[in-house]
């Protein structure tokens, strides 16, 4: 499968950065709108047979990737470092993302990366920016803003009346800097599938990637697409999406991962809310495996149609 980078720009505030599940749903809607229900169902049925026509990642701020969880810098004795260097080491605990340049260093030789990490940090070859949440190389400093490209606030509004009492509803709203761009990665089985996806996105004036009740929020515009090639590692793979694992071909002892429990809410109009849980591995998890992908679609029978939840692992 070939790998492509799709770029989107935000055109509204958002409630969260889209993950692989929400983008999969938005993309499925775009394909259905352009090519019809039968075309979409054909693609989904292939996926149920593990013949995935395409696999999608989560969204990332442009030119960044999640922090790989197997980055473990070589320990330095406190007697050999200064107070300022010790402060720099403590700041690394805040890192959430890395630049593409850092990823190239990491992927080319992990042992060397871990050994030299603190030395490059102390010499300013590696820099921490955006409240120490992003690690970049010194020669990439002009590609990023020093401050975080967003601000988060809590919004309060009344819940829809379902009884005599009305509850307050709280949600977070993320205000992005103007024309903030995001990267999302796509693996496709063929050029025909790529053309279907690109045409579906191009026909949308904007694409809504979020909950049904986030009117005026979570709006994005598709910009462009280009083929990319990540360094190949035939044993270790980093996850760029949320995924379940349904394979026994993972060396758990030499893998690094985090889990999250996702709640899917249904029948929100009714007073009773039903939740179904899905235990997923998160972006940045690193698996020792020779598999090119992990996970599967998780179907849920819901009248009058079947809902497919995307839990396929996009790995590089």
Count up the helices. Answer: 6
Helix content: 10-25%
CATH architectural designation of the largest domain? 2-Layer Sandwich
Termini Cα gap: 12 Å
Main-sheet strand order equals 2-9-1-11-10
Q: Unreliable runs, pLDDT <50, ≥5 residues?
A: 266-274
Q: How confident overall, as mean pLDDT? A: 89
Class inferred from helices and paired strands = alpha+beta
Please characterize this protein's 3D structure:
This protein is α+β, with helices and mostly antiparallel strands and 316 residues long. It folds into 2 domains: 2-63 and 150-313, Alpha-Beta Plaits; 65-143, no CATH class. Helices cover 22% and strands 36% of the residues. The chain has helices at 20-35, 37-48, 83-91, 100-108, 110-122, 191-202; strands at residues 2-10, 54-61, 64-66, 97-99, 126-129, 134-137, 150-158, 168-176, 181-188, 207-208, 219-227, 236-238, 251-256, 259-266, 274-281, 286-288, 294-302, 305-313. The strands form 6 sheets. A 5-stranded antiparallel beta sheet has the order 2-9-1-11-10. Strands 3-4-6-5 form a 4-stranded mixed beta sheet. Strands 12-16-13 form a 3-stranded antiparallel beta sheet, with no helix packed on it. The longest helix has 16 residues, at 20-35. The chain is globular and about 65 Å long. It starts with a strand and ends with a strand. The model is unreliable at 266-274 (pLDDT under 50).
